[in-house]
Amino acid sequence: MKWYRSTIRLYIPGSFVPFLIILVIAVGCDHRITEPTEKEQEAPFLSSEYGVAPLPGLTASPSNQKADKDENKKYNPATISLLKQYIASHNNVSYAAAAGQWNARKQQYKYTVLPLYFPDRIVQAAEGQVIYYSYYLANATHTLRTLQSIIPASKEAAALMDQWLKKKRRRGNGPELDSLKDKCENDDPVEGTCITRGSDGEVIYTTCGTATVCGSSGGGGGGSDDSGGSGGGTDDGWPPDGGGTPSDENSGGGMEDGTGGGSSSNPDNPNQSEDPNCGVQGILNSSIPSVKAPTEDDPNPNAPPTAQPCEEEEEDSFVKIIIDPSFENTKAECVYNKLKNLSTGFAEAIQKFDGEFPVSHLKLSTNNNLSSSTYGVTYAPENYVIKIEYNENRFGNISDLGKALAITHEVIHAEIYRKMLSAAQQGDLNHNQYTTQNRINYVNSLRNNFPGLYDYYWDRYHPNWNHNMMASHYRSTIADMLHDFDNGRLSQSTYEAVAWAGLSEFEDGSSTIAWQNLPESEKQTIEGLINNHFFNGPSPCN
Amino acid sequence: MKNLFLITTLFFITSTVFGQQKNNNKYQLYEGGEKYPKLQRYVFLDEENKKDKNISNVSFVIGGEIFKYIASRHNRDTVSVSKFRDLNFSTIEELKIDEYQEHKKRTKEAGIKMPPPPNHYNVKVYIVEKICGEKAIKYEVDWLFTIH
After folding, report:
1. Cα–Cα distance measured from residue A430 to residue A388, given in angstroms and rounded to the nearest whole number
2. How far is residue A512's CA from residue A106's CA, in Å, rounded to a whole number?
3. Residue B11 touches chain A, beta carbons under 8 Å
């Protein structure tokens, strides 16, 4: 068997070349294959219709992930046309963006429009010319987001857009920003976003008026937060006790704010909603405002029209937390739903996967074939999806508090992976398959944005690094969640003891460093409390 | 012309399949880097372990670790019990140690500082299941990376 295989390997490559050439010729001769497809026959969108030709390089997605090479798909003529009409109908708006969110179930985009403002010198340099700028984002479930915009015909304007979408934002008070902010707040009667560059070169944006989709969310920008975190910069907040190295992986926030680039979907969707008041058509069909005085009923009468969500669209238009059918109507789901409704960290952690531009998706499922001593497992990310499996059989033998702990434990593993993915800007963490440049970017991003994580994983790697980090820096968070979940039925010290479950000793005899450092008497007390409350106690979800 | 096309296609498929098998037995520390042979390890499936079988896949849970045989991608072969001594079975703990030692050795050789990626990239595992009498089945599997 071995001999046969090696013989094939030796001889195939040499003989394969002429066959390949013949194959290529044979395929090339087939007229049916080379016949233009329906899409290729479509009339190309002429950039001259709206302004100067797109600048070289501008068509590239800000991120290199799954960037589509087909130039025809770069711009959506229909959306650009709508934007142009929008600009034409607003006297004080010269540039605008339409942020679209793909609803896979309804097979349509939900759009929101926001005006954009650029520094005067950029506007003047463009001499009234505009270009259109596109940005696509795809994820593992092939749900897509798009930002189509009309901006000044300037490389600098395009670069600002790139960075605005891609990089973290910081507050700044450069003179240019101040004047723009002033302009936003005092001169312009509509809401919008000013994009400029601070004195330190950082891209700054200021959202005027009510935040819109692009002004308040990750990929399109977000409130001007210092963290630079995901969308609204909430990355800093979970877990709350994660300060200082090596726990300060929470500082910095991140890159996961919707950079990602994209696939290129053609947002021209034939199945777009027929409802004239929703989706992109809703923008056009809304009345064109003239400047009006605010009233009690309408304090902001001059706000630009935004597309109203179509019916039921708000609820589940973009699936980020994927509930596997095996998870439905289980004990695990019962506890998960209770945890999700808490005001503490669990909901925040879950929202990271459920944000406007999540960097990864969380898939929840059950698997009763897991080891009999295993309550749950978290799989390494694959194609932007982090999968958790819970052992429903085992859940029948523990209290609801125990179940809540098991669910939280795995979600924290997933949260750690999510941060790593955001640093890697890849769909998996298999850095042995990255290019050298991608690996360097990954390490640098990990070090800069999540120094604690970098310290545990990269700098001082230990096979049990994940549990070591959790034991040292996430236990208080777990205890707080358990306290809230259990309505404070027990003392805080009991919840803190129960939080050690899964973070102390393991089947192979190893243990976490934090556990090793505990006095023996304390270990015994903790083990007693775990036995009393992890296994025994109220179990309404059973 | 048709025959030529068919032969070409057949050769193309064959070479692709064998080419993939060849690559499956090697790993790299980084894209474009040197290729090293994967460690080959055999794990015995005893009665305590779990096996979940459907039409095309078989999942094994051994010592908390999950292994998956996918019919379309992996080989499965019979093996005689008398050959067991040659297979030198590993425990899950030994697998983990060997995997990490291999990683440390190769990164040191290459002068690279990097932790192992979460994908069991440098070891090829076979699960051996005794079926009856002198016969056993050897499954080539993927070792799925999980944290508990």
Report:
1. 18
2. 48
3. yes
Total number of residues shown for chain B: 148
**Bridge partners of residue A208, in order along the sequence:** A192
Q: How far is A34 from chain B (nearest CA, A)?
A: 18
Per cent of chain A over pLDDT 90 is 30
Partners of B77 in the beta sheet? B138
Handedness of CA A446, A452, A455, A457 (dihedral sign): negative
Distance between CA atoms of residues A259 and A173, nearest Å: 25
Percent of chain A with pLDDT over 70: 48
- Reduced to 3 states (helix: H, G, I; strand: E, B; else coil), residue A529 is helix
Residue at A91: amino acid letter: N
* Side-chain half-sphere CA neighbours of A283 within 13 A: 29
Per-residue model confidence (pLDDT) at position A171: 33
Question: What number is the average pLDDT over the span B25-44?
Answer: 93
Return d(Cα A404, Cα A413) in angstroms, integer: 14
Distance (Å) from the alpha carbon of B36 to chain A's nearest alpha carbon: 12
Tell me which of A1, A2, A7, A19 to substitute to probe the interface with B (most B C-beta atoms closer than 10 Å): A19
DSSP B10-24: HHHHHHHHHHHHHHH
pTM exceeding 0.90: no
In this complex, is the C-beta atom of A326 within 8 Å of any C-beta atom belonging to chain B?
Answer: no
Shortest Cα–Cα distance, A71 to chain B (Å):
29
Question: Band of the pLDDT at A443, cuts 50, 70, 90?
Answer: very high
CB–CB of B102/B44 below 8 Å? no
State the residue for tokens 């969308």.
Answer: A231
pLDDT at A515 exceeding the cut of 70: yes
What are the phi and psi torsion angles at A505 (to 5°)?
-110, 150
Between the alpha carbon of residue A214 and those of residues A61, A113, A182, A259, A263, the distances in Å are 17, 8, 20, 13, 19
Instruction: Tell me the backbone φ, ψ of residue A117, rounded to 5 degrees.
Output: -125, 140
**How far B133 CA lies from chain A's nearest CA (Å)?**
25
Euclidean distance between the first and the last CA atom of chain B, given in angstroms as a whole number:
57
**One-letter amino acid identity for A39?**
K
* Cβ within 8 Å of B, A 498-537: 502, 506-508
**Which residue in chain A has the smallest CA separation from B11?**
A16
Residue A248 tokens read as 């300060």
- Mean of per-residue pLDDT scores for chain A: 63
Judge whether A535 and A492 are in contact, CB under 8 Å: no
Asked if A507 lies within 8 A of B8 by C-beta distance, the reply is: no
B5 near A CB under 8 A: yes
- Rounded CA-CA distance A347/B44 in Å is 42
Interface check for B1 against chain A (CB to CB < 8 A): the answer is yes
Query: Which tops the pLDDT comparison, A248 or A42?
Result: A248
Q: Is A244 left (phi over 0), alpha (psi -120 to 50) or beta?
A: left
Q: Take residue A189 and report the two structure tokens written for it.
A: 């009667």
Interface test with B, best of A7, A8, A363 (most B CBs within 10 A): A8
Measured CA angle at A23 (ends A21, A28), to 5 deg: 95
Q: What is the C-alpha separation between A500 and A476, in angstroms, rounded? A: 10
- Residues from chain A contacting residue B27 (CB–CB below 8 Å): 432
Out of B14, B144, B145, closest to residue A8 by CB: B14
Angle in degrees, CA A224, A226, A232, rounded to 5: 55
